[in-house]
Amino acid sequence: MAMVKGGCLAPGLVAISAALLTTGCGGSGGTTPVSPPPSSSGGPVWTSGVYAPSSQFKNKCQTVRTGVDIEGNPYPDTQGSTLYENFWLRSWTHETYLWNNEVVDRNPANYSDPVTYFGVLKTTATTASGKPKDQFHFSLPTDEFLKEVNSAPSATYGASFHVFSATVPRDVRVQYTEPGSPAAQVVSGSPNMIRGDKILEIDGVDAVNANTQTEVDMLNAGLFPATAGETHTFKLQDPGGTTRTISMMSTNLAFKPVNRTAVVNTSSGDVGYILLNTFSPYSSEKEIADAITAMKNAGVSDLVIDLRYNGGGLLAVASELGYEIAGAAQTNGKVFEAFKFNADAGNLDPTSGQPNQPAPFFDTGLGFSLANGTPLDSLNLSRVFILTTGETCSASEAVINALRGINVQVVLVGGTTCGKPYGFYPQDNCGETYFTIQFQGVNDMGFGDFADGFAPANSSDPYAVKTDGCAVADDYNHDLGDSNEALLAAALQYRQNGSCPTPPPSAVAVKSVAPGALAIKTQARPDVMKHNLDMRMPN
User: Fold this and answer.
1) CA distance 109 to 82
2) Does 436 fall in a domain?
3) Are residues 266 and 191 located together in one domain of the fold?
4) Are both 241 and 286 inside the same structural domain?
5) What average pLDDT does the structure give for the chain?
């Protein structure tokens, strides 16, 4: 598949299939193309309700990049101004944003920063539960985006932290560790960090109660090292209450999409378990395929996919997983996900001007990290167990919805998913990559209305779409993949006799951050994969 030219997507980005390949820089959005009148300084002038094609403003930058990006693509920038960047955002939003008729048309000249202007170019409507309909609108520098999607290593210990409370009294726990990482290294008979460890001190600073800016800066520096080779000391309390002190050196590391696999032996057959934390970067394609092949070779009779921390990623790889679960007979000729664009788009994809074509269940490798055309193994299951929390989002939810759309029984165990039936084509302009909701995904039955998430049948959530399964709180007292861990144990119980644990285990409450409170960071850098449905295909 050829790479998109003309700067229509971020360098190296293309659409989900050949039919969706972007060949233009945005459709007309249902308007008659017009040229904006020039200002006295030579820039465009705003006329409310009148939108010139976004291509007239694309890559006309206040600061011109030179050279090539980390993928080797030349920067397309030409000299322009912040005003041109803002006008591009305005027209591009009008052409491609899913709810373009809900965006207030504001004068681009009133904003000195494109990122600030982009922040107001979205709907303010809410869902049935009262949460913002669009809570996924964001941008980040393109060089950070490309590092993330190319799985560029970054300084880390190989531990994922969950911040239950970022302010005093703080509560920071180890969520999981990366195999082979400093956090997983065995010292004196036990790993440096285990799931559920609570961080009490970092480099002698009280991680729970310290409350000066200097101390908070030290905590952040210890949790999220800036470079490889930094050594920091942690005092930890394990789930059983035992405290210990460890020292770890950060290293450059890229987290694996498939964190671990297991086969659980039961009296009624072996059950496969896969902890899948993202559908990106490109390496996820091969890692997932290898995990499914291992499960097939093991002869598992059921499968548990742990998506509790999977915020999404590549839609095409999610589609491959759908096929790998269900197999050819159940997916042949069926839609994994079809796309609903804004009302002005008609039967076209407004990001490309090409006919709107759905994504199938892909049954071969697509060239991300498997050779294009490589046949994929499948388990041919009519039922799958999926472990979920509020961090299960976007491409992960697409798997749930797509399998339900072909009558595969999806048994959810855990909490309500995030509720993102929406996606976008990441778009670079002048060094910033923008993510604006451009389509709603629907399954083979035409269903995609889960803006308040999916939830197990016995959940008390009144707004989520209910499916088979059990509401169970996340369990930080057992390691992931341990058959005694609450979500996995509940899945095995439901599989055995169709019952759920009663009552559901309690969870640690997440404390909201009050305005102005002195809070630690919750992550090292913006997480591109968080709540993401990524439409890229290999070049």
Assistant:
1) 9
2) no
3) no
4) no
5) 89
